[in-house]
Design goal:
Helices cover about 40% and strands about 0% of the residues. It is mainly α.
Length: about 100
């Protein structure tokens, strides 16, 4: 695919970059090389390749959930600057 300077301008607007003229010319060549390489990758036969989300096999390493007793509510609220009987009171931020 042929990359034009208009396409580079459009991508630079989307990425909020101001590119000088010499940088636009360089980016045009780089984007063409990237798309050429994508064509090479698209030509590969991946029908027998299993999809994966990571290169390395990963497994969940979280610990199992266990039920444990919590602190008493008065103990938790004793350091609150403005305590209530049930919760922390905070200044109103949204009207």
């Amino acid at each position: 695919m042929k990359i034009t300077e208009e396409m580079v301008d459009y991508v630079s607007v989307l990425s909020r970059l101001k590119l000088p003229a010499e940088e636009k010319a360089r980016m045009t060549g780089e984007l063409e090389r990237i798309l050429d390489y994508m064509d090479v990758l698209n030509a590969l036969d991946t029908a027998e390749v299993e999809p994966m989300s990571h290169v390395f096999p990963l497994k969940n390493v979280l610990r199992p959930d266990t039920v444990e007793p919590s602190f008493a509510r008065p103990t938790l609220l004793q350091n609150a600057p403005i305590p209530d009987e049930e919760a922390f009171l905070v200044p109103k931020t949204v009207e």
